[in-house]
Amino acid sequence: MDKKLEALGRELAIQQELKKSSQQVDTLSPLAEIEKNEKLEAGLERIQQELEKSSKQMEDTLSKIAQIDEKLYTQGRQIEIQQELTKITHMRLQRLLVFEKIGSKYYYIEKKIKMNWSDALHKCREMGAHLASLQSEDEIKALYRVLQPNQWYWIDLNDIKKDREFISATTGLPGTFFHWNENEPNNKDNSEHCVELYTFTSTSQSLMNDQSCSDGNFFICQTSWDKIQHKTTQIILQ
Ligand SMILES: [Ca+2]
Ligand SMILES: [Ca+2]
């Protein structure tokens, strides 16, 4: 009987122990859950911080790229401007290079485009020069060697203001040197007020003639060595 009671007692003890263990498991479970959640939250927070850090680094990188872009754009524009200025300088210098020394003077002889006297006058002025202001037979002889034969070229003399009073458009003063062809100036039809130089191959000379200012002619621009030097310096220093 005692043995039975003893066995029953042991069984009861085991059951109580099991129940106790079961209770312990039940009470531990919510704690584990909380711990798990806390771990998850901590993990999420770290991820969030990492993301914020990455986002900030990305913003910094983009900002640096924008700064580099701006710098490159500015440098690019500076190079473009420099190239443009070089091109303009080159063009201006080239315009000066068209003047050649013929005899003792510097001329540009237009041999391709014909225009009226007034336009030719302005064209020479645009080039920083003036229509040829001839002063001697030597100058005309020197030009004769380079002018196209049997062609007319405007020079600076005209009697626009008063017939037969030929003025130099360069100085505004009465002309001092004339080398007229035979029977010229004739002021034909009372409408010839501008002077041209004509190259006669038959007599191997260039001679002056008064002609209608509206006629289309080639023309001769003139400048001086001093002007060329001055302009070259101006262009290079600009
Ligand atoms: Ca006239
Ligand atoms: Ca005439």
TrEMBL record:
Domain C-type lectin: 102-222
UniProtKB keywords: Coiled coil
SUPFAM superfamilies: C-type lectin-like (SSF56436)
Pfam family, one: Lectin_C
Coiled-coil residue spans: 37-71
PANTHER family: MANNOSE, PHOSPHOLIPASE, LECTIN RECEPTOR RELATED
Protein name: GL26175
Organism: Drosophila persimilis (Fruit fly)
Classification lineage: Eukaryota, Metazoa, Ecdysozoa, Arthropoda, Hexapoda
Gene this chain is encoded by: Dper\GL26175
